[in-house]
């Protein structure tokens, strides 16, 4: 059965990537969550999507330029605001799947030791648009599951681009944008998903919020990453 992951917890927007949002996603029935990680200047792994805090909190602070202590002093560390990757593993259920999207390449060599300390490598997927940093993840532990995130850079390149990436990185999973069904026909896209799975490459679709589309593709992929958690869980059915 396809697994449903809450995008940034309960979805993009207010409270995204907060500990409360991540926990709520699993409480509502998500199999796990997708979250984003940046490294502070003192080596803390902070969960947030953007390089700065302007969009979320209206503050001109770049994560890489401050320390955890400074963030805490500014009252930005809390269950409703910023949290750490360590805190997520401490508080989320022990069977929750966690898709750690590496936004900051400098964080790549730090994430695996932390996840390994929770004995959680088997339920963690390390993904990134910055594919080269995933080699650092694999270097940290050959058993680490790496997922290649595909985005705008693939536009106009066709399926050959995906094949080249697979040959070079040998990923655990391919994280394809839902727009693939607009760029190619539904039939061609479904054939791609099926061919990847036949080669034992897991397929994750992001960000799939359309329940009608989810109904059509749910049997051809392994993970649905969504902002529309309740609707997609209803389509998937069961737990």
UniProtKB/TrEMBL annotation:
GO terms for biological process: lipid metabolic process. Residues 2-236 form the GP-PDE domain. CDD domains: GDPD_TmGDE_like (cd08568). Pfam families: GDPD. GO terms for molecular function: phosphoric diester hydrolase activity. It comes from the Bacteria. Gene3D superfamilies: Phosphatidylinositol (PI) phosphodiesterase. InterPro entries: GP_PDE_dom, PLC-like_Pdiesterase_TIM-brl. This is Glycerophosphodiester phosphodiesterase.
């Amino acid at each position: 059965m396809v697994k449903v992951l809450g995008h940034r917890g309960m979805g993009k927007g207010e409270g995204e990537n907060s500990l409360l949002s991540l926990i709520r996603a699993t409480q509502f029935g998500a199999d796990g969550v997708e979250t984003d990680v940046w490294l502070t200047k003192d080596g803390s792994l902070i969960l947030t999507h953007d390089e700065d805090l302007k969009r979320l909190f209206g503050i001109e602070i770049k994560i890489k330029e401050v320390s955890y202590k400074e963030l805490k002093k500014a009252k930005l560390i809390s269950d409703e605001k910023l949290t750490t990757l360590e805190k997520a593993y401490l508080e989320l259920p022990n069977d929750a799947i966690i898709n750690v999207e590496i936004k900051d390449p400098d964080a790549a060599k730090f994430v695996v030791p932390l996840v390994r300390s929770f004995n959680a490598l088997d339920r963690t997927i390390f993904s990134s648009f910055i594919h080269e940093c995933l080699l650092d993840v694999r270097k940290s532990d050959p058993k680490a599951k790496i997922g290649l995130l595909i985005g705008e850079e693939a536009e106009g390149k066709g399926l050959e681009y995906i094949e080249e990436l697979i040959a070079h990185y040998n990923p655990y999973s391919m994280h394809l944008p839902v727009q693939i069904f607009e760029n190619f026909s539904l039939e061609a896209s479904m054939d791609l998903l099926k061919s990847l799975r036949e080669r034992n490459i897991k397929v994750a679709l992001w960000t799939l919020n359309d329940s009608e589309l989810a109904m059509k593709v749910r049997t051809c992929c392994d993970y649905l990453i969504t902002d529309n958690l309740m609707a997609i869980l209803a389509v998937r059915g069961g737990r």
